[in-house]
Write a structure and sequence with these properties.
The structure is a homodimer of 415-residue chains. With 415 residues, the first copy, chain A, is α/β, with parallel strands linked by helices. In chain A, 41% of the residues lie in helices and 12% in strands. The first copy, chain A, has two domains: 258 residues, Type I PLP-dependent aspartate aminotransferase-like (Major domain) (Aspartate Aminotransferase, domain 2); 142 residues, Aspartate Aminotransferase, domain 1, CATH 3.90.1150. In chain A, the strands form three sheets. In chain A, strands 1-9-8-7-4-2-3 form a seven-stranded mixed β-sheet, sandwiched between helices. In chain A, strands 5-6 form a two-stranded antiparallel ribbon. Chains A, B: GO terms for molecular function: transaminase activity.
C-alpha cells in the first residue's frame, strides 16, 4: 500500500509466465501491434506511434527527451516535486538549456503561471510531470495544450504516477509526447514504459534520423543533430514497431506480455471506470486517515486519487511505524523524498490494490500500530470514516456520526 | 531453435510470476544482493560491481559505453560481424573517436592484429564482442587482457551471444567491463542486462560522478566530463545496488526475479557443465546439419558452441523453408544480417533448447522440409549423424557408418 511499486494484478503475472516466441514470429509482431492499439485507448489518443520503451518509466522519460532535445534547445520544466527535478536533470544531460519554475511542494501551477514562463523563456519544449508522486499532486494539464500550440511549444508530460488512476486525455489536452510506467495504477511490474507521440513529435524525431542516414551529403540544409542514444533512438524504435519492422533491440517479450495484459485489463474494465475506482477507494483511504486523526498533506483539490500523504505526528517515529506495519502486518507504506523525507507517510490505493478490503485492512492495521506507538487513537475511527465514505458514495445511509472525533494525534500522544 | 531469443526455461518463467515486493523491502534488496553474487559466479569474477541494467542486452552495452566514454575519447572496435558495427555505432553516439578494424565475416582476429591496432590508434578503450551471433564466431579474448594492460587500455566486451555456452572468464582474461543479456544461453527473456565492472572501470565511472556532485567548485583539476545519460549512469546505478541504496530508477522486479533464476539455475548446474552441455548439443547439431548435406559457414575452429550457420543451398528458398518449419512443425530457425541475409540459416542450440530431443526433432523436421523443397536428401542422414556424434561423445559404440553419404544439396536439387 505504498506509493508504488505495488502488488501486480495476478492476471498480469500469469500473462508474464507465458512461453516466449521468436522476435519476428507473426504471433510476436501481432502482440506488438495489438499492444499499440490497447495503449491508444489507455492514453486516449489516435497517435500511430504508441508503443513501449524497454526499460523502467525513467527509460521512457529519457527516450522522449534524448530523441526530442537537441543540445542547446531551451526546455521549460515546471517543478512541483521530486520528479520535476528528474525531468530537469535528464534534460540537462541531453544538453538542453533548462529553465525551471518552482511551486511549493504540495501545490501546483496555474496555467497563467506556466504561460508567463513560456513567454519569458521561449522554450522549444515544455516538460512537466502530470502527477508527482513525491507530493501526491496532479498538475492540471487540460489548458496547457492550447497554450503550447499558441506559442509553438512541444508539450511533453510523464504520467507514470497518475495514468489510469486520474483523468488523462492525451489528444484532447494537446499532448505531443507522453510517457508512463506499469508499476502504479496499471497494476504491473516496473520495467516497461508505454509512450505515445503526436505527428508533430514524430516529425521532430524523424528529422534527426535523416541526418544519420546520410541525407547531409545530398546538400539539404542541416538543422537537426543526430540523437545521442542508440537504445533510446525513437526514430529507430518507430521503425521497429512500425510496418518496416527494422531490427533494433530484441523486444523484451515477457515485459511486452505484461504491458499488454495491463492495458487489456484496463480496457476491459473501461478507462473511466478505472479512474472512478481509484477516486472511490482513494477517497475512502483519505477519509479513513483523517478519521484516525492524521492531517492530510498538500492541496487536496489537486491531489491524485491514488496516493495520499499524511503528516507523521510529532513524537511518532515514521520509520518505526512503517517497519512494524511491514514486519508484523505485511503492509508496506512509504515516506517521501527531499523536504518531505521523514515528515509524511505516503499511502497508495492503486492498481490491483485499489480495493475496499485493502483500504479497510490498512486502516485497521495502522490504527493498531499508531496505538502501540503511543497515540491516543479512538478505536475504529479510521475504518468507520472509510465505511461512511463508501456509504455516502453508494447513496446508502451513512452510519451514525462518529461519537468522538479523534483529537489531532499530535496533541494526544502519551509518549 | 533460432539464434535467440529462444524458449525460456519454464523455471525462469515461474520465478517471474511471483508477486512483487516493495522497492526497499528487505526481501527485495536481499534479492538484489544475492543476484550480484550469482552473477559473479556466472561471469567468473570477484568484481564488487556486478549487477543488472534494466533493459535489453543493448541497454547494457550503452550503459557501459556512455558511462566510460567521454566525448573525444579514442575507442578501438574490432568488427567481425553485425554486433561489432553496433558497438561502433553506440561509441560514436557517445562522442568517441572510433577506430575500426574489420575481419571478413566468418573469421576472427589474431591477438597480434588487435595489438597492432592498439599500438597504432592508442585507444582509451578496446570494445569487442565476444561472440557475434550474426556470424556465429567467437573472438578469442584470453590473450587480450594482458595486451590491454600493457598498453593501459580499458578492456570491454559484450558476451550476450556467448555467455554460459562458451568458456568465459572475466577476471582471468583481464576484462574491465562485461555486458550480457538473458535471451541466449542464460535461458531467460530479453529485458535485463547482467554486467560486471572491474575496480579500474569503476574508478573511471566514479570520476565522472564527482563532477556532477559539484566537486568542480572545490578547485580540483577537472579531467572528467559528466555522464550524458541519467538512466544509464553507472555511477548512480552502483550507488543504487550498493550499500548506499540511493534511489535511482525503480528496479524492474519481475525481470530481477527472472535474471536471478537464470543465474541460480546455471550455478546449480555448474558453469563449466553448462558450457559442456552447449558444446555437446551444438556439436550434434553441426554434425547433423552436415549429415543432411549442408555446408557449414565460417571458421569452425572459432565457432560458438550454441549457434551454427549453414549455407542455404542454391535453388532453395530460405524464407520458404523457415516458414514451413515454423508454420507446420512449430520450429523457428533464423537467417542473418547484412552480407549473410538470405544466404545462411542460423540454428541455435542454447539455453533451455540445448537438449538432445530438440536437436533430433529439428534435424528430423528440417529433413522433411528440405525434401519438400526439392532437395534429394538421404532419409535419416541428419539424425544418424547426430546420433553418431552423441555415441562418440559418450564413448559408446558408434553406429555403423552411414551407407550413403548425402551429396552436397546444392548439386542434388531436382527443382
Amino acid at each position: 500500500m505504498g506509493p508504488g511499486p505495488i502488488n501486480a494484478d495476478p492476471r498480469v503475472l500469469r500473462a508474464m509466465s507465458a512461453q516466449l516466441v521468436g522476435q519476428y514470429d507473426p504471433a510476436m509482431t501481432a502482440y506488438m501491434t495489438e499492444t499499440m492499439g490497447l495503449y491508444r485507448q489507455v492514453f486516449k489518443t489516435q497517435n500511430e506511434q504508441t508503443l513501449l520503451i524497454d526499460g523502467t518509466s525513467r527509460a521512457g522519460i529519457e527516450a522522449a527527451m534524448v530523441s526530442m532535445i537537441e543540445p542547446g534547445d531551451r526546455v521549460l520544466v515546471p517543478v512541483f516535486g521530486r520528479f520535476g527535478h528528474l525531468l530537469r536533470e535528464i534534460a540537462e544531460r541531453c544538453g538542453a538549456e533548462v529553465h525551471v519554475i518552482e511551486a511549493e511542494w504540495g501545490t501546483v501551477f496555474t496555467p497563467e503561471q506556466i504561460e508567463a514562463a513560456i513567454i519569458q523563456t521561449q522554450p522549444k519544449i515544455l516538460a512537466v510531470v502530470h502527477g508527482d508522486t513525491s507530493t501526491t499532486m496532479a498538475q492540471p494539464l487540460d489548458e496547457l495544450g492550447a497554450i503550447c500550440r499558441a506559442h509553438d511549444v512541444i508539450f511533453y508530460t510523464d504520467v507514470t504516477a497518475s495514468l489510469a488512476g486520474n483523468t488523462f486525455e492525451a489528444d484532447a489536452w494537446g499532448l505531443d509526447a507522453v510517457t508512463a510506467g506499469l508499476q502504479k495504477c496499471l497494476a504491473g511490474p516496473s520495467g516497461s514504459a508505454p509512450a505515445t507521440f503526436s505527428a508533430k513529435a514524430v516529425d521532430l524525431v524523424n528529422s534527426r534520423k535523416s541526418i544519420e542516414a546520410g541525407i547531409r551529403s545530398e546538400g539539404d540544409e542541416v538543422t537537426a543533430t543526430p540523437i545521442r542514444s542508440n537504445y533510446f533512438d525513437l526514430a529507430m524504435i518507430f521503425d521497429y514497431w512500425g510496418v518496416k519492422r527494422l531490427n533494433h533491440h530484441t523486444e523484451a517479450t515477457t515485459m511486452l506480455y505484461g504491458s499488454r495484459e495491463c492495458a487489456r485489463l484496463l480496457v476491459e474494465e473501461g478507462i473511466d471506470e478505472a479512474v472512478e475506482r481509484h477516486r472511490m477507494h482513494g477517497g475512502a483511504m483519505l477519509e479513513g486517515l483523517r478519521g484516525l486523526g492524521l492531517t492530510i498533506f498538500g492541496d487536496e483539490s489537486h491531489k491524485m486519487n491514488n496516493v495520499t500523504a499524511v503528516f507523521i505526528p510529532d513524537g511518532v517515529s515514521g520509520d518505526a511505524v512503517r517497519g512494524e506495519l511491514l514486519d508484523d502486518f505485511g503492509i508496506e507504506i512509504g515516506t517521501s523524498f527531499g523536504p518531505l523525507h521523514g515528515k509524511v507517510w505516503r499511502i497508495g490505493t492503486m492498481g490491483y490494490n485499489a480495493r475496499k478490503d485493502t483500504v479497510l485492512t490498512t486502516l485497521s492495521a495502522l490504527e493498531q500500530v499508531l496505538r502501540r506507538a503511543g497515540a491516543n487513537v479512538v478505536g475504529g475511527s479510521g475504518v468507520r470514516a472509510a465505511y461512511d465514505f463508501y456509504a455516502s458514495e453508494s447513496g446508502g445511509p451513512v452510519a451514525a456520526a462518529t461519537p468522538e472525533v479523534a483529537p489531532a494525534l499530535a496533541e494526544s500522544l502519551a509518549l
